[in-house]
Amino acid sequence: MKIRKYSLDDVHEMYELFKDKEVTRYLYDNYDYYSMENTKTFISNENNNQEIHRAIVNDEDKYVGTVSLRYIDLEEGTAELTIVVKKDYHSKGYAWFAICEILNLAFKELNVRGVYWRIDANNKRAIRFFEKHGFNKLDADIPHKIKERHIKEKNSIWFAVLNGDDFENVALSRKEIVGCKIIKIKTIPTVEAGELSFFEANKDINFDIKRIYYISKVPEGSRRGFHAHKNFKQVLFCPYGKIQLVLDNGESREEITLCDPSIGIVIEKPIWREMLWMEKNSVLVVGASGYYDESDYLRDYTLFRNFIGNKC
Ligand code: T46
After folding, report:
1. CA of 149 to the centre of ligand 1 (A)
2. Ligand 1: distance of its center to the CA of 214 in Å?
3. Is 227 labeled as catalytic in the residue annotation?
4. DSSP label of 173
5. From its phi and psi, is residue 101 left (phi > 0), alpha (psi between -120 and 50) or beta?
6. Ligand 1 lined by 258 (C-beta under 6 Å)
7. Per the count of CB atoms within 10 A, which of 33, 58, 263, 279 is most buried?
């Protein structure tokens, strides 16, 4: 998963996306009239002073969507964000990954003060997505110029990130993810000498820890996991680096980026998990309720669905 500049090889996938009404119906631009030729032109004119578009691609470098900064106004220090991802790649962590990348580009390379985006109030899926990631709808404080630009669009809901906001961590203020608890691990700072975090079995978490394991030296962009546990309970945390965790309870799938050593995820039921190493040298530590036992693993998604189906 990464974002990169467009390539003419993206044209077929992009054209397919433009023609998917279900995905494009809430977008500002109307893609109905785009032909394959227009799509090629669109790719060739990728960037200008006011716009930056990036292709979102999977591990095989296949185009899955576009994330953009538009109406970049360096005098005002503002830009607008848009994102569109192909349906097959929804709920797999692509959108959040791409948003974090483009926001980092906006704040670190362009040095803008704020990035704003407008969502159609009927686009419930997008609103849920941003709320899930800890963003609140903005009622005021949208720069006048931006509001003016969208004056004709009714039913607008606005979100924003300002330079300096800890947007990658904002989702960590949530309390749960697909029914798993997100815990704040007790953390004691020492003046100019870092901090110490700790949790205690049967106090801060509801089970005994019989095994600790940790995963390290994983190259950036690698994925692990792709299984659930039948009975083991686990607490997961990332003491160093940045790891995206995708959790799936068989009905919904949500992701969270672990990048704060004082945040833990407690999984106490069969939940499908996938991990993406977003930064090299990131470490994932897990405290498990049982000794290693391969027969506790469900390493096939259909088996996992059947297992939870039979339990209900
Ligand atoms: C989990 C996620 C978050 C052992 O021999 N002992 C152990 O305690 C563990 C955890 C694994 N292994 C063996 C089993 C495999 O031959 O180590 C090998 C790699 O394990 P796996 O492919 O399951 O690794 P991940 O990173 O996909 O998953 C691990 C845990 O296995 C799993 O319980 O929840 O981390």
Report:
1. 52
2. 9
3. yes
4. G
5. alpha
6. no
7. 263
Task: Quickly tell me which residue has 């704020």 as its tokens.
Answer: 114
Q: For residues 137 and 165, give the distance between their C-alpha atoms in angstroms, rounded to a whole number.
A: 15
Q: Which atom of ligand 1 is nearest to the CA of 299?
A: 23
Q: What is the pLDDT of residues 120-162, one digit of tens each?
A: 999 998 998 888 777 878 866 889 999 899 988 888 899 999 9
pTM: 0.69
Torsions phi, psi for 107 (to 5 deg): -85, -35
Q: What is the C-alpha separation between 262 and 188, in angstroms, rounded?
A: 10
Ligand 1 pocket member 233 (CB < 6 A): no
Query: What's the longest Cα–Cα distance across the chain?
Result: 63
> How many other C-beta atoms lie within 10 A of the C-beta of residue 160?
21
Confidence class for position 59, pLDDT limits 50, 70, 90: confident
For ligand 1, atom 21, name the residue with the nearest CA. 225
CB 231 within 8 A of CB 300: no
User: What are the pLDDT digits (tens) for 75-105?
Assistant: 999 999 999 999 999 877 789 889 999 999 9
For residue 64, give the nearest of 78, 79, 81, 84 by alpha carbon: 84
Nearest CA to ligand 1 atom 16: 294
Residue carrying structure tokens 């704060």: 260
- If you take atom 12 of ligand 1, which residue's CA is the nearest one? 292
Residue 227: beta bridge partners?
Answer: 273
Q: Which atom of ligand 1 lies closest to the CA of 291?
A: 8
Atom 28 (ligand 1) nearest CA: 225
| Confidence at residue 223, expressed as pLDDT on a 0 to 100 scale | 92
Average confidence (pLDDT) over 171-181: 83
Cα 291 to averaged position of ligand 1 atoms, centre (Å): 11
Ligand 1 and 292: CB distance under 6 A: yes
Asked whether the beta carbons of 236 and 225 are under 8 A apart, the reply is: no
